[in-house]
Specification:
Number of domains: 4
Strand content: 35-45%
Shape: elongated
Distance between the termini: 75 Å
CATH superfamily of the largest domain: Alkaline phosphatase D (PhoD)
Structural class: mainly beta
Radius of gyration: 36 Å
Number of strands: 43
Helix content: 10-25%
CATH architecture of the largest domain: 4-Layer Sandwich
CATH class of the largest domain: Alpha Beta
Strand order of the largest sheet: 26-27-28-29-31-30-33
Length: about 650
């Protein structure tokens, strides 16, 4: 709002700077007044206002940005009051009772005013601005100030009076003009909006969510087994969004194996509103339980909103794994390559995809995880060794916008989680990579990988990463790092664990049963979500599809995990985005429902006792212990035992057996 109080007459009707609307233009003999308004919509860089009149006179002006609480500003909704140019001690204005919610503003202009005076307003009006002018009229006997103007206002609801009267303390007499303007609109806090929502992969008792909101001052997640949130509501802690509106939310205390719906609570000015609940629930894990599930995976989307995302969403699977090459910049470059490695550009590129309709269809309801590939460093074949600035920017923004729980605090997106009796271990092949035949994973992550494999008690392990494991053909593959690949392949084989691997980057669908894969592990490749076909690595047991050519293809992989208590099978199908099957392969692993315990150790405790400990076993509800072939404890809980009352200097042999 802008307003001018003028000493004497202003001449012809006032005009205002382009973009401003003159709401009140009053010419009096001793005092005149102009009031104008415009909407500050966030796009204008210059909100200055010039009000012009034809007769040169002394004037006092104010311009202030006033929060009108969501009022709709239009000239047809502004109702000016009459004004008074007589010598009075107070003045009233009444634009009529409010016919709806809105805001009323009053502007008082006075010929001259005493700088020590204050205005009094009736009916709940509050002074917002007060500008008392210097003396411009040397003939004013009662006031020693010049042209002055005061702004006051109030919120109104339907039927509220908008009448107000202004007077002075101490009482003075002079010429005054008053305009009372009523703006129609909705009184109250702005309505917060949930712009994006992404659900992380749930654990047995918690889930993480990443959201972007507008207007909210605090945000929290709530879950319930009821789609209408009538029972069993569990709330997470409220957090304040960052400057972009991003929040990382968590809900804990969930029950194992329960399906929960999600909604987001958004608070502004102590009023909380909730988003609509998710259409589909997510399900928490049951550690070690026999159970089947399914998920999709893919990489490489060089288009704004691939239809494959909607296709995957319709599958209603347990989760989706994005294996990298997230970005695109239509009309600028492939995958947004060369657009910049700044934090600002990463925010733009990530959120543009998250907000695309097909992506929303998937991510709003389906838990997800993500690991990067080369174009996520904004260039072909890029990684930490080629652009350390991109490494820092990528890792910062990932932690702002994606729900990746369990990753390191600052750098790297490697993590592990379990679903029933399958252990997933996700690697980051970009944040620590060096030049060819040095390292892909870096020292710390590589040791973490080995430790995660060693510690896994689940009978099947699935490694999640972005590249091609088999062969040496094609750029940017594990074949460029033969020393590290051989080291890991030997570790996989020596671990005795049943390991398979997911990969992307090659723009094709393929699978190998371990015949051609280093380490003898099964490998499943799925890409691209949208890009020209390509062939890398190999040979494969099945595929690749397409076997040749560079035509645009849209593809993804789906894995159906079936656990019958004695075996776990991984049934892979590579699909086109229209759900046409292109390649299939099933790998089956022996997996008794109750696994044997591992890592049994014994240590003397004094001269007559031995302490035993072991690692927990999948599916075990307790453990039997034998000493020298004789059972000494049955169905014992926990993974430790103290055997007492023994003979000093005697050798004992122990065995522990799972019970389920």
């Amino acid at each position: 709002m802008a307003a001018v109080g003028i000493d004497k007459t202003k001449g012809a009707a006032a005009t205002a700077t382009s973009g401003w609307t003159v709401a009140r233009s009053y010419t009096g003999t001793s005092v005149s007044q102009i009031v104008a308004w415009r909407v500050a919509d966030g796009t204008a860089t210059d909100l200055s206002c010039t009000l012009t009149w034809t007769t040169a006179q002394g004037a006092q002006a104010i311009i202030a940005e006033i929060d009108l609480d969501g009022a709709t500003l239009a000239s047809s909704t502004i109702t000016p009051a009459t004004a008074n140019d007589t010598s009075v001690t107070s003045i009233s204005g009444d634009p009529g009772a409010a016919t709806g919610a809105g805001v009323a503003l009053a502007f008082l202009s006075v010929d001259s005013a005493d700088p020590g005076s204050t205005t009094n307003w009736t009916n709940g009006y509050t002074v917002l601005r007060s500008e008392i002018g210097a003396s411009l009229d040397t003939n004013a006997p009662d006031f020693n100030g010049g042209a002055s103007i005061i702004m006051a206002g109030k919120d109104v609801v339907s039927g509220t009076t908008t009448t107000t009267a202004a007077s002075w303390t101490p009482t003075k007499t002079d010429q005054m003009a008053l305009a009372v303007l009523r703006f129609a609109g909705t009184v109250g806090p702005p309505t917060p909006v949930l712009t994006t929502q992404m659900i992380g992969i749930p654990t047995a008792d918690s889930v993480g969510v990443a959201v972007r909101t507008s207007s909210a001052t605090s945000v929290r997640a709530q879950v319930s087994p009821s789609p209408t949130f009538t029972t069993g509501i569990i709330s997470g802690s409220a957090v304040s969004p960052n400057a972009q509106g991003d929040s990382q939310l968590d809900v804990s205390g969930l029950a194992n194996g329960v399906s929960y719906y999600l909604r987001i609570g958004m608070t502004v000015q102590d009023v909380e509103t909730f988003s609509a609940p998710t259409a589909r629930p997510f399900t928490t894990d049951i550690p070690g339980a026999v159970g089947s599930f399914s998920f999709c995976f893919a990489s490489c989307e060089n288009t704004p909103d691939a239809v494959a995302f909607a296709t995957i969403a319709a599958r209603d699977d347990d989760f989706f794994l994005h294996l990298g090459d997230w970005f695109d910049d239509p009309g600028v470059s492939i995958y947004a390559d060369g657009t910049g490695n700044t934090v600002a550009n990463y925010r733009t590129q990530f959120v543009r995809k998250i907000q695309a309709p097909n992506h929303i269809a998937l991510y709003a309801d389906t838990p997800m995880s993500f690991t990067p590939s080369d174009h996520d460093w904004m260039n072909d074949g890029a990684y930490n060794g080629t652009d350390a600035v991109a490494t820092a920017s990528f890792n910062q923004v990932v932690r702002e916008v994606l729900p990746l729980r369990g990753i390191p605090a600052t750098t790297g997106v490697y993590r592990t989680w379990a679903k029933n009796r399958v252990r997933f271990i996700q690697m980051d092949t970009r944040s620590f990579r060096g030049a060819s035949n040095t390292t892909i994973l870096g020292t710390v992550q590589k040791q973490w990988l080995k430790d995660a494999i060693s510690a896994a008690i689940e009978p099947v392990i699935i490694l999640v990463q972005d590249g091609t494991w088999i062969g040496t053909t094609g750029g940017d593959t594990w074949g460029l790092y033969p020393t590290e690949r051989t080291e890991l392949a030997n570790y996989f084989a020596a671990s005795g664990k049943q390991i398979s691997m997911l990969g992307g980057d090659m723009h094709g669908l393929a699978a190998d049963d371990g015949t051609n894969a280093p380490g003898g592990i099964a490998v499943f490749q799925a890409a691209p979500l949208y890009q020209n076909a390509s062939q890398k690595g190999g040979p494969y047991t099945v595929g690749p599809y397409p076997a040749s050519g560079t035509a645009i293809v849209q593809q993804y992989g789906r894995m159906v995990v079936t656990d019958n208590g004695s075996t776990i099978s991984l049934a892979f199908t590579g699909y086109s985005s229209d759900n046409t099957q292109r390649v299939t392969m099933t790998e089956t692993y022996v997996a008794p429902a109750v696994q044997p315990p591992t890592g049994l150790t014994a240590s003397a405790s004094g001269t007559t006792a031995i302490g035993l400990s072991w690692s927990p076993a999948t599916g075990a509800t307790g453990y039997d212990l034998e000493r020298n072939g004789v059972v000494i404890a049955t169905n014992r809980p926990g993974t430790t035992y103290s055997d007492t009352g023994l003979d000093p200097g005697t050798e004992y042999t122990y065995r522990v057996r799972s019970v389920g």
